[in-house]
Amino acid sequence: MTKEAKICFLIPDGVGIRNYLYSDIMKDLHNSGFQLQVWHALSPEVIRQSERINSFEIDSFDLITYKEDVITQILRESIAFSRLRRGAKLTQNETIMTNWKKENLSFKKKMLLNLSEFLGKFLDNYTSILQTEKLLDSRIRGSKAYLTYKKELFEMNPQVLFCTHQRLPAASPALLAAKDLGIKTITAIFSWDNLPKARLAIRPDFYLVWSEYMAKELRFYYPEVKVEQIKITGTPQFDFYVKNDLIEDRVEFARKFGLDPGKKWICFSGDDIKTSPYDDKYLFDIAEALKNEEDIQIIFRQVPVENTARYKAVLERFPQIFHINPFWEKGKYWQQFFPYPEDISHLINLAFHCQTVINIGSTMALDFAFFDHPGLYLRYDHTQSQVWKTETIYNFQHFRSMEDLDAVGWIHSPEEILSKVKQAIYQPLTIAKDRKKWLERIVLNPKLKTSSSRIVSFIREELN
Questions:
Q1: For 239, which of 215, 303, 377, 450 could close a Cys bridge (C-beta 3.0–4.6 Å)?
Q2: Origin, by domain of life (predicted)?
């Protein structure tokens, strides 16, 4: 491999920032002799932050995104609908169909999805799905986006195009153009819940997955993907958790945020309003249950892409809740939202110093499990008539990874909050006893070898 070997990271939205631009993978690839390119639609400040962390300049290229035409959208959505139906039937899990969402959309978009749903019902066997995907690829190859990206890739001349997010349609023409130019293509499956959602928008040469569990999932939902195309590397987001230098002294961390280092800390992590519309009521329940516990402090962290407007009344009612804003830059559009590197350290310190985390089915339970702290999942509704129900949430396919494991502690009513929190704090070995096993099932242990080093080794092998 020569110094001229180029790796181009395609980052079509903000999802790849933390895992790739802020992790060791850029530095490790650079130190292995690669030239790095970033092809993106992000704020220039993100690139500057990455260069500051990694101590070298990155070749940055603007990604102009194009809206798909109506026919292309209908083809893509028809495929998604038919794949969701197939997945629900194979798993005997109807909650998979909740990923087909038509609420809060414009009339035009609803009509498009209705037509896609009608057409998708005719794709009633797997061969018809694959044939329609070929038709979609053919359509994309005639688009302006494909022709533009092919020209830009020819000029950038990378040996590898690495897409950090597998589900964004805007990446499809870029990956197709790269494959047609003979450029090796790679994508990483971003999250542990992505594969059942039928949004694998791109078909690269290689797929990087978190674990053997995810590798089996990929083959289950996409049997046309060959075993040799799947590489089990873990995910860079957990590499940060083995960096001891990111963990702050408890007293210093407490001083920053006005906490008492002598008390027990618990974290309530909020979800977005679509995922958990009753989060403000759950935070109220937690604060009410713990209001007389002088030795326990509640830390509240909302989802980074939302403000705290819906929590205002609760925070005013219970000033003892310590609200800590995520370290994110907010914008009008998704591309303008991005985390600062400080947010990574903040998350790690929450997981390290807090005794437990409480939420509705959040990945944060995995973060806390890394430091052997139990997570608590809320599993009750506020009214019998509400449409959104926790039972639906916990029947989602990715929670089947918990089967046969005592992975988290369950809170079935407001009356259970105090006892479950105290159990997690004072008797952590008696609750969520299999949390480490659950974590190891979902993601490779970065203590043995980091995801970054696995990915670098894989790319070196492929180019050699």
A1: 450
A2: Bacteria
